Amino acid sequence: MQFIDTHCHLDAAEFGDTQALLINEAMSAGVGAIVIPSVDASNFATVQKICAQHANCAPAFGIHPMYVDRAKRSDLDLLREFIQQHHPVAVGEIGLDFFVENFDREHQEYYFSAQLKLAQAFDLPVLLHIRKAQDTILKHLRRTPVRGGIAHAFNGSPQQAAEFIKLGFKLGFGGAMTYPRATRLRELAATLPLDSIVLETDSPDIPPAFLRRGEPNRPGFLPRIAGTLAELRHLPLEEIARITSANAVAALPGLK
Q1: pLDDT at 148 over 80
Q2: pLDDT at 194
Q3: CA 116/CA 129 separation, integer angstroms
Q4: What's the distance, Cα to Cα, between the start and end of the chain in Å?
Q5: Mean pLDDT of the 151-156 span
Q6: 1 pLDDT exceeds 80?
Q7: Which pLDDT value is given to residue 100?
Q8: How confident is the model at residue 144 (pLDDT cuts 50, 70, 90)?
Q9: Long-range CB contact pairs, 227-233, < 8 A, 24+
Q10: In total, how many domains does the chain have?
Q11: CB under 8 Å, gap of 24 or more: what pairs does 137-141 form?
Q12: pTM over 0.85
């Protein structure tokens, strides 16, 4: 039984230099592969180094919408170079975040659009960050079609979910669905087509309900998070592992 963590920031400062321990812990728990997305040009190289050292880790390179305020146009050239040289499984983490205070919508949309064009040029899927921007993201995806990917930490409506699925996307579910009060999200996890769902931790963020307050999320927790999906779907955990891992490879063919 092997799971795939489709979104894990193993390079985060919270983890210091413990990546090898965290990866070994995850593998022992049944996690067979980990996708590590970057967030801006300053950590492209760090993400690549971790993935080069650990065969079960795969990189994605992109500029996160919450980091575009410090991005430069030349960072897009660097992104192109990293894609050409290192063959990531996706362009990401990219997207739009209209939840943060004082966001610059025009700036975010410029970098999102430019990165979609890069994904299109290299025929790569994308890892999408979406907060309060579902419909605007969909508008950009229709304008610049890409090879699908994953809508990370999906929290839209059933109708929006259907639109992402039509465009070839899988929907990422993680620790947030483990909270009993997250009724709308749990309903989505229980009722969306199972072949559209992938699992993720977003470590060290989005800690599941079973962690102590302030404790960082870790990729080794993915099977326990998957247990919630198994309960919601009334399926054996082994079946959840098989289906969601197949979905992840379908979304990110570079994982093969």
Answers
A1: yes
A2: 98
A3: 13
A4: 16
A5: 97
A6: no
A7: 84
A8: very high
A9: 228/177, 228/178, 228/186, 228/189, 229/173, 229/177, 229/189, 229/197, 229/199, 232/177, 232/186, 232/189, 232/190, 233/189, 233/190, 233/194
A10: 1
A11: 137/95, 137/96, 137/112, 138/163, 138/164, 138/167, 140/96, 140/109, 140/112, 140/113, 140/116, 141/116, 141/167
A12: yes
Confidence of residue 32 (pLDDT cuts 50, 70, 90): very high
Q: Is the dihedral of CA 215, 216, 222, 227 positive or negative?
A: positive
Output phi, psi for 95, to 5 deg. 150, -150
In the chain, the amino acid numbered 124 is L
Residue located via tokens 């769902």: 197
Phi, psi of 40 (to 5 degrees): -160, 175
3 state SS of 11: coil
Calpha distance 47→36 (Å, rounded): 7
What is the distance between the alpha carbons of residues 155 and 137, in angstroms, rounded to a whole number? 13
What residues make up the domain containing 143?
3-255
Cα separation of 218 and 208, whole Å?
Answer: 10
User: Measured between alpha carbons, how far is 206 from 173 in angstroms, rounded to an integer?
Assistant: 10
Domain CATH number, residue 245: 3.20.20.140
3-state SS string over 33-83? EEEEECCCHHHHHHHHHHHHHCCCEEEEECCCHHHHHHCCHHHHHHHHHHH
Q: How many residues in the chain?
A: 256
Residue 66 has pLDDT above 90, yes or no: yes
> Could you give the angle at the alpha carbon of 164 between the alpha carbons of 119 and 221, nearest 5°?
85
Percentage of the chain beyond pLDDT 90 is: 97
